[in-house]
Amino acid sequence: MTMLDTALGLSADALRLRAQRLDVIAGNIANSSTPGYKARDLDADGALARLQAARSSGFGAMMADQLGGGLQYRAALVPSIDGNTVEMATEQAAFAENAVKYRASLGFLTSRIQTIMSALKGGE
Amino acid sequence: MKAGLSTFDISGRAMAAQLVRMNAIASNLANAGTISATEQGAYRALKPVFSARFDGAAATVDVARMARTGTPEKKLDPNHPLADATGHVWAAAVDPNQEMVEMVETARAYANNVEVMSTARGLMLETLRIGK
């Protein structure tokens, strides 16, 4: 497992983080008309940077288990009268950005898998 | 991804909630302008009350209850067949303009959730083809 983790690199954890963030933002969009709901977000970029730092110092596997714990509340540009802080434009932008980054991680992961397959087959 | 709420659960429930709201708006608009002989019998606008439901990092939406809102308007109309002894009737407590605005908002919220679901579906299908 550790060997596979090393071989797949950061992309596998990035994919997991992006999937988690997708759910968090989907929850915000779902609650766009719930009174008193506070929009939340996951700092996936920050978590990835910390994970990368931990990996280079050899604690990557330990860090990966604790990923995605830190949800933060979004600061609303204009607070609404019912206490809901979901701003649709912000959420849509975050959602689109996250979807693109998910696709990117997926692409990196795919090429890594292809590289490993090619190495296993002896470059055929 | 953990086995709790999936993106499809989150958006699916939200779509269901928005449909409940759309149904309430339809019945409010259908009953706008109706007249009743008593204050108790007069129609009062139906409003769903949404509440967030959390499951770890995920959050979806529930319809907590349906509320009856507004106060029926007492009108003097002695010639109306439903008029009481003092010649008054009660008109339904529905503001058609407000309902129309809410209808547009509901349709937009529904469409947003559909978009979330179709994006998540696309990403999942791509993930299934990983390594190819």
Could you write a compact summary of the structure shown?
The complex is a heterodimer of chains A (124) and B (132). Chain A is mainly α and 124 residues long. Chain A is 65% helix and 5% strand.
pLDDT average of chain A, as an integer?
A: 85
**Biggest sheet of chain B, strands in spatial order?**
1-5-4
Largest sheet of chain B: 3 strands, antiparallel
Write down how many β-strands of chain B occur, each being a DSSP E stretch of 2 or more residues: 5
What kind of oligomer do you see?
heterodimer
How many H/I helical runs of chain A?
A: 5
The averaged pLDDT of chain B comes out at 91
Based on Cα principal axes, name the global outline of chain A.
elongated
- Radius of gyration of chain A, in Å, reads 18 Å
Largest interface: A-B, 36 and 34 residues
Approximate helicity band of chain A:
55-70%
* Residue share in helix of chain B: 40-55%
Largest sheet features of chain A = 2 strands, antiparallel
What's the number of extended β-strand segments of chain A?
2
- In angstroms, what separates the terminal alpha carbons of chain B? 22 Å
Low-pLDDT regions of chain A: none
What proportion strand of chain A?
under 5%
Strand order of the largest sheet of chain A: 1-2
Q: Spell the H/E element sequence of chain A.
A: HHEHHEH
Low-confidence stretches of chain B: none
